[in-house]
Input
Amino acid sequence: MGIMDDFRKSKEDNKVHTTPPPVGHTVAEILQDKNKSDLFGKLLEKDGQQDLGQRIREGKLEKDDLELLSEYRVEFSKKIAQSERIENLLTEENIIEIARKHPDFAKILDSLTPKKALKVIRNQLKEICFNDEDSFDAIAKPIDIHDSFKNGKDKETSDKVDKLLNDNGITSQEYLDTLAIKDPIEKKEAIKQLAKKYGGLWWNRLNKDLLNNLNTAARSLEDSYAELDKYKSDIGSILFASVSGNDDMRDALSKELLSESAPVATEKKTGFLDAKKETTLDEKEFNEDWERYKTSSDYAGKNTLEQDIVKDMFIAEQKTKYEEKNKKNKGFWASIFAAWLEGNINDKRNTLS
Output
């Protein structure tokens, strides 16, 4: 490295660069991944960007396409982040808690296991986030509220009660055992005994303060527990409704019932590279089919008009053949490559002789 290179590097290192590195995945990375490219295709399809999809397939982007792709890349990354944030708030532990508060949702866990149910729900959340923003928001809202309360007011209540107990030398277990007493009169007396044990004689003011604080803490714990239960029930309601009303979710759950290693509703996904690989015209096979078709239809013995009809019939047959061959491929990219393939077959008509 010469002095000019060192000088240039020194100047660049000392500059304040305002252009941040791109957040999320690049378009190239997205297109190379089956699931990500399928989801990216959903964004393009939603906005009617079939022409852009065709230009991506051809590798012939126009002047404004790079800026457009950058905008879609940002939107894609945002949706991925949104869905993953909600996915991560759902754990095996808390969906079990949710099921305990919602009998209908519990039936799903009874049919599968918490692990399998969580796998399906997390997978489908991404699909819903890209396909139906309103439905995703409806699912995310109670989960966010639950998380916000649990890490906010609920935690604040817990911290205050912990401090009260620690300051007065009362163990958590001793206090919880007292609160677990079902008879309200016995419970009231047990709390008074705690205040007497740890705060001096019950008629002293210090004892009355501790007694009041222990009773207040008990009410705040009950209130917080009830409120958190309500949020868990709300989550159970929306998740159960989503499973009941979403065909893909039910299909995925059905597949999980059948096999330990069953895929989670991946049959309907066709990524960019899958579509590119599978939606191709076999030139050799096409030509061999044409030769057989000519022979069986006595092409050589027909006049020009009749030969044109034979060509049209053969092209229609080839389209049907490839449609059947590729009918398992679904999604935006499959439709883009299918349209290209149909056009390619149409163009081949001019080569028939």
In short: The two ends are 64 Å apart (CA to CA).
